[in-house]
Amino acid sequence: MRRKVPSLNALLVFEAAARLQSFTQAADELSLTQSAVCKQIANLEDWLGLALFARVKKRVQLSDAGRDYAEKIRRHLDKIERDTLELMAHKEGAGVLELAVIPTFATQWLIPRLAEFQQLRPDITINLSTKTSAFLFPDSLFHAAIHSGNAIWPGTSGDYLMAEDHAIPVCSPQLLQKYLSRKKHASIKDIAQMPLLHLSTRLEDWRRWFDLHQHTNDVCAVNGARYELFTMLIEAAIAGLGVALIPRYMVKNHLDSGKLQIPIDLSLPEQTGYYLVYPEENTNLPTLQAFRTWLLSQTAQVAK
């Protein structure tokens, strides 16, 4: 039975016009004339039996139905493009793994180790994209994800990789000098006087740190600027904006270079770990199996 699917060319034109909110810009992007774009949109609307755009004077605006259809079509076109690129790059035994990963974990831990995997499996390409929160695999193009939390996501399979490194206070040498003057070492009371920087998803960390080290007086541990990502938090600390609690491995290079210093070596044990998660149907995916085996061997070395 013939599929009830409109022309792929019409869908490509519609996606571009919807994304750019302009028939003229869509024509430029696709190397078509504006009249050709208008004709493709009109034919698609006739085929569907509803209006995808509202014509307002010399502008076009997506209708509610058009906006919803554009979002769905874009996901499908993205998947078709990804599958096509994978096939074009395919060699005997080769493959591509689409991996979502936490930004700072990717830059500070995973990427520096990927050269070894590339040497072991030059036939596999790992494409990395950042994700900072949970998502639904059916709505994405990812085969797997590495996330930080307390458990594997519901409805997925996965592996515990390792505990997150203890968080330590770090700040710039300039900030330390400003608040310590001639003192060589900071006290907990000194830290309480400094601007406290926070990760948006861990606003209780400083309170937990002060509680753990028996200092609860004269400090409002929730005051201070908040940052969405560890990468932003690290840069804020380097810029002298305050003192931040950061897992040690994330700032090792900055500590070695002197961009950051540890004002007081009292850490905060983290309660979360890193997990590799993936849909159950991807369990036997050859690229994922190879990456999973290598990744578990890497994290086992860290745990020793």
Automatic annotation (TrEMBL):
Domain HTH lysR-type: 6-63
SUPFAM superfamilies associated with the record: Periplasmic binding protein-like II, Winged helix' DNA-binding domain
InterPro entries: LysR-type_TF_proteobact-type (IPR058163), LysR_HTH_N (IPR000847), LysR_subst-bd (IPR005119), WH-like_DNA-bd_sf (IPR036388), WH_DNA-bd_sf (IPR036390)
Protein keywords: DNA-binding, Transcription, Transcription regulation
Signal peptide positions on this chain: none
Domain of life: Bacteria
Similarity comment: Belongs to the LysR transcriptional regulatory family.
PANTHER family assigned to the protein according to its UniProt record, in alphabetical order: GLYCINE CLEAVAGE SYSTEM TRANSCRIPTIONAL ACTIVATOR, HTH-TYPE TRANSCRIPTIONAL REGULATOR
Name of this chain's protein: LysR family transcriptional regulator
